[in-house]
Design brief:
GO molecular function, one term: ATP hydrolysis activity
Radius of gyration: 17 Å
Protein name: ABC transporter ATP-binding protein
Number of domains: 2
Keywords: ATP-binding, Nucleotide-binding, Transport
Number of strands: 10
Bound molecules: adenosine-5'-triphosphate
Domain ABC transporter: 2-231
Helix content: 25-40%
CATH superfamily of the largest domain: P-loop containing nucleotide triphosphate hydrolases
Number of helices: 8
CATH architecture of the largest domain: 3-Layer(aba) Sandwich
Pfam families: ABC_tran (PF00005)
Strand order of the largest sheet: 6-7-8-3-9-10
CATH class of the largest domain: Alpha Beta
Length: 231
Amino acid sequence: MLEAINLSKKYGEHQALKSLNLNVPAGETYCLLGQNGAGKTTTINLFLGLLKPSGGKTLINGVEVNMDKNTTNSMIAYIPEVVQLYGNLNGLENLEFFSRLSGHNHSKKWLVSLLSKAGLKEKHHTKKLSSYSKGMRQKVGVAIALSKNAQVIFMDEPTSGLDPQATAEFTAICKELVSEGKTIFMATHDIFNAVNVGSRIGIMKEGELIHSGKTLDLTAIELQDLYLKTI
Ligand SMILES: Nc1ncnc2c1ncn2[C@@H]1O[C@H](COP(=O)(O)OP(=O)(O)OP(=O)(O)O)[C@@H](O)[C@H]1O
């Protein structure tokens, strides 16, 4: 579903990505780990088509991102670390606004069902966003991704700043989405979450993918050891 082929990115003279090769089959959750500045966000931005590669290419479901952005955009959604929504609108209104913006005209009933599926309790649907926690905002972000019917959901640091309960709820939602055939690609520093939710992990160092493989029954301690040896 996701492929990076000899992908490289230079910012001026700085080589942020060095010939990255990556393959994520459909229905997997890929967790990309690495120190600050390793190149994780750059990789996501190249898949999103927000950056142009300096070399190589990214493909989504076989379509090259920079060749046909309309097609690839229709297959993907992005949930940033802090989901930017309108504070003066409620959760349902935000979802309605953003799903319309991406060209959909879903019924209110359907949008309510998406918010509930994303784990947002119904009593919060009509509360102003300004009263939402980070975890609740993220649930609206998941609902927006669902309203787009995205096949692939990219996430940047999705569990950063979430309390253990919000993290557990988020993990459960990710697992449900993947069980329905979605593909998730996330950049994260959260090793526990990576083994919990990830079916594959990648470890980056200074723009290179040093390790990539299935998590299988790797424990968090084993992944931490592998991470520390790799970086
Ligand atoms: N717009 C930019 N201009 C110049 N350099 C940049 C730009 N964006 C990123 N970089 C550099 O590219 C490298 C990779 O950055 P990137 O944000 O992809 O790392 P990251 O792994 O996501 O880090 P973090 O964990 O801190 O989010 C870093 O050295 C960063 O300083």
